[in-house]
Amino acid sequence: MSKDRYWRAISIDSISPDCFPSVALYLRSGGNYVLYKDPERMFTVADYSRLERNFTEFLYVRSGDMEILNEFMENGLTEMLARDDLSSAVKGKILYQTSVNCVIDMFESPDTAANLLRCRNMVQHMLQHVATDSHALESIQAVVDNNFYIFAHAVQVTALSLLFHEMIFDLAPDEMIDVGVGSLLHDYGMIFITGEILEKNDALSDIEYYKVKQHTQKGYEYLKQSGNYGEIVLNIVRYHHERYDGNGYPTGLKGDDIPRSGQVAAICDVYSALIMDRAHRKANSHEDAIKIMREEAEKGAFNPELFNHFVEIVNLKRPL
Ligand SMILES: [Fe+2]
Ligand SMILES: [Fe+2]
Description:
Layout: E1 7-11, E2 25-29, E3 32-37, H1 45-53, E4 58-62, H2 66-75, H3 77-82, H4 88-108, H5 113-132, H6 149-168, H7 173-184, H8 195-198, H9 206-213, H10 215-226, H11 231-239, H12 260-275, H13 286-298, H14 304-316
Antiparallel strand pairs: 1-4, 2-3
Helix pairs in contact: 2-4, 4-5, 4-6, 5-6, 5-7, 6-7, 6-12, 6-14, 7-11, 10-11, 11-12, 12-13
Bound molecules: fe (ii) ion (2 copies).
The site of one fe (ii) ion has 5 residues, from helix 6.
């Protein structure tokens, strides 16, 4: 990766004056990072309006300051989500950003007990949010900085997958946490794919595509040997690119031989990929995404029953 790895993008929507610790914020200008506010100065409503007027979507934090920021945001999450004066959209955006920050650390070090604990707490918060907030999907359509696509996508898939399981199945609390952790880590195996391939804007060659496809099995093998993850987590990581008709990867399992959590993850994964901006194309609207997926479903990509449930759920919990 480039020097960008020293910088973390923070969506300005997730910075609220009293929900932000004293760390420096930077603006990206051309290829450079310019100090926007020093640690001591408060981030004010006027800052927000000014940035919004200039169409600035992100400010940047030095990765070395992320520990302070994460601790501050994660510790304040329960209180923040309970506040009456914040709209559900603002809450969702802060939760989304905090989850993205957490998932970045998880990808760097998925075997650290502290990260695993943070990740479980985060899933708990997300579950609570998606289960109780009727506009829960509003915030997951947030704009993301392209360098952080994979992490933002992980959080989207998690929100969708938790919502789906919560509404359709009756899982034990521990199993729900595992659905969340598995979804956050579903593309973990991407760390084994070279940046060159991942950052490529053109179509992939056959060999490159073959390599990308290995992220499922490689992620699964790595997380399995770490011994920290149970079956649900591992199933999501391994099977989220299987297709119901057996034409998926890595195993080509078919129908209900594919573990159910993997079938749900596959649906959420495709939807998330379609509704997000990518370097090479603009995001699809919700309607277009569903249309594309319906065509795929007719060709046998998804479990039809689960797909129909999914469409009902996203239609219900989507902003008007
Ligand atoms: Fe994947
Ligand atoms: Fe994915």
